[in-house]
Specification:
The complex is a heterodimer of chains A (about 100) and B (about 230). Chain A is globular, with a radius of gyration of 18 Å. Chain A contains four helices and no strands. Chain A has about 100 residues and is mainly alpha-helical. Chain A has one domain. Chain A starts with 5 loop residues before the first helix and ends in a 9-residue tail after the last helix. Chain B has about 230 residues and is α+β, with helices and mostly antiparallel strands. Helices cover about 40% and strands about 25% of the residues of chain B. The model of chain B has no long low-confidence stretch (mean pLDDT about 85). Classes of the chains: A mainly alpha (about 100), B alpha+beta (about 230). The interface of A and B includes residues 20 and 37 of A.
Chain lengths: ~100, ~230
């Protein structure tokens, strides 16, 4: 029988929990995107900007140098709303951002 | 007991195990047939059971604040659901509803942990979860990067890979799908999806029969995805 003891099983359970957490985050994001909520729209815009940054010459650092006000205007939100949305996406591990 | 063995032994996830190990699994598993439209679980229910689909199809969906049904995935034979069960005191965060009469094997978190003692089973489960994660990621990317025609094309091609059956005309997606279902999957209005479907049908790319889509020209359908490439 190919078995491990209970302690040896723990890394597998932790790995499965890690993937399950990712699944939960992605399924929630998918629901947000499909429902057209503010976090969903923000993620799609950032995702497209990220794609542009990586496939068009001369657009490097586009995502790094985004203006909070500019982004808020593009999303039809005020800066306070946008900050909450970014914090929500950040807390779910979907984006990483810093305001400087 | 014999029913339990029959339930588990044909699941692909356990296909690499020998008979004594499969018999052990049978002792831990339960089986149930869910009728069409019956719920396996609803959002907010305690997550304490892992489900493996033996036959049939299950729709995973959430309901938006506006009451709109948002289909996240359609699962089939050998797929797994209820992975929130891996967390302590977890709740289900979506609804799981049988789309047709569906035969499901299930086991509790504690029993599932015993199954994970087998490395082959563990690997298979990690692989299944990884595929689900890829599917969600692809759906988000699909919505972000494609217009409605592209999203319909990508979704039909994906469904054809998952549920496709060869027929003289082409590939039949062996699942009953209304325009509403497809609209929910691709995140567009039913009217818009119906227009796209009408166009694809007129171009001879797809056909429909008995609420099932038939891919007549997969190459032409794929070309709808290349608009943003």
């Amino acid at each position: 029988m190919k078995k491990t003891d209970k302690r040896g099983n723990q890394p597998v359970i932790e790995e499965i929990q890690r993937i399950a957490a990712g699944l939960e985050a992605m399924s929630s994001l998918l629901a947000e995107v499909k429902a057209g909520t503010k976090p969903g729209k923000a993620f799609v815009l950032l995702f497209n900007l990220f794609l542009l940054e990586n496939c068009r010459p001369g657009s490097a650092n586009m995502v790094n140098n985004l203006s909070l006000q500019g982004l808020a205007d593009a999303m039809n939100m005020d800066c306070g709303e946008l900050t909450s949305v970014l914090a929500y996406l950040n807390n779910r591990g979907l984006i990483d951002y810093q305001i400087t | 007991m014999p029913e339990k063995i029959r339930c588990m032994k044909d699941l692909a996830i356990f296909s690499t195990l020998d008979i004594p190990e499969r018999n052990k699994i049978a002792e831990l598993a339960y089986k149930k047939t869910y009728n069409r439209n019956e719920y396996l679980f609803r959002e907010g229910d305690p997550a304490d059971t892992i489900y493996l689909i033996k036959s049939g199809k299950v729709k995973l969906y959430k309901v938006s604040a506006g009451g709109k049904e948002i289909i996240l995935d359609i699962l089939k034979e050998d797929d797994m659901l209820g992975e929130n069960t891996f967390f302590d005191r977890a709740e289900h965060t979506m609804n799981a509803q049988a789309m047709e009469n569906t035969f499901v094997c299930s086991c509790t978190r504690e029993h599932f942990a015993l199954l994970l003692q087998n490395p082959q089973t563990s690997l298979k489960i990690i692989q299944l979860l990884g595929e689900k994660l890829n599917n969600y990621t692809n759906q988000v990317a699909n919505i972000a990067f494609h217009d409605v025609r592209g999203r319909v094309a990508a979704t039909l091609l994906k469904l054809a890979r998952q549920y496709g059956a060869s027929s003289p005309q082409g590939t039949t997606i062996d699942i009953e799908l209304t325009h509403n279902d497809l609209a929910s999957l691709v995140n567009a209005s039913r009217v818009m999806v119906s227009n796209v479907i009408g166009g694809l049908r007129q171009d001879g790319v797809i056909a429909t029969k008995d609420h099932r889509f038939i891919i007549l020209n997969a190459e032409a359908l794929s070309s709808a995805l290349e608009t943003l490439a």
